[in-house]
Fold 2-dehydropantoate 2-reductase.
Amino acid sequence: MKIAIAGAGAMGSRFAVMLTQGGNEDLTLIDGWPEHVAAIKKNGLQADLGEDDKGVGKGVGLQVPVWLQSEVPSGEQFDLVIVFTKAMQLGQMLHDIQGVLGPQTKVLCLLNGLGHIETLEKYVAKEQIFLGNTMWTASLIGPGKVKMFGTGSVELQNVAPGQEDAARDLAEFLSKSGLNASYSADILASIYRKACVNGTMNCLTALLECNIGQFGQMAPAHAIVTQVVSEFVAVGRAEGLDLNESELVAHVESCYDSAVADHYPSMYQDLILHKRKTEIDFINGAIARKGRKYEIPTPYCDLLTAMIHAKEELLGAK
């Protein structure tokens, strides 16, 4: 299978490593960060795989083709494109790579946040779109360098009716590379479940400048998480989703003592480390907008969205 990963940041790089190690040699990275692309071209993609059971560090360097998204050549079409951009960059990425999106190209969108189908449908037919989320984690520690944490999984579903077998085949294909992918009959509920993690851990660790485990040790942590999750649940229920608030709170809090406790989520990495604007408008901001639509109060999401934007301004994020 001919694969492209559009958005080769932390998660895109992790998937590239795992897919390549799973035997998929025809894989190309596409990204918009010139320094990152240049580093991969020069030194390969350098991956820190953590430590083995004896405490010895493990690493790998992958020589993989990489294109700057503004320089993607037309005419070479892919069987599968996995989209891993930031939510606000999705439209520009799809515009830049439309020359390699053929009528048979499957597009798997694994972005954080809500509301991506409408953007995808501007560039490919609904029958080509597969929507999912992932619990894998990673950190981009510099141009061309990724650090991989713990284990994870992928859930995905076809957007168009009648593509269920294609979605199951795609999940099976990803699982052959150890990505633990499965078909979901209700991906929107799974996306809301992941969004509860993003809507708490991402913005709160960025605002407080701490990792997940450190946040979990703070006295107000439980109360804050419960309030934020309650707003996600209320909006999700207004959209017809069957969400269990107490289970979702427990799911978020399970991160505190897991293999990702020392992880600094992507919003922290973007804002604190790299002074980049964040995806807050597609996570807490999306819940705030939907809350206004359904006349549901969302004071915590309103405040967190405003605070992240204020911190972006304070740090001169671009």
User: Anything to note?
Assistant: The mean pLDDT is 94. Residues 188-315 form a domain with the N-(1-d-carboxylethyl)-l-norvaline Dehydrogenase; domain 2 fold (CATH 1.10.1040.10).
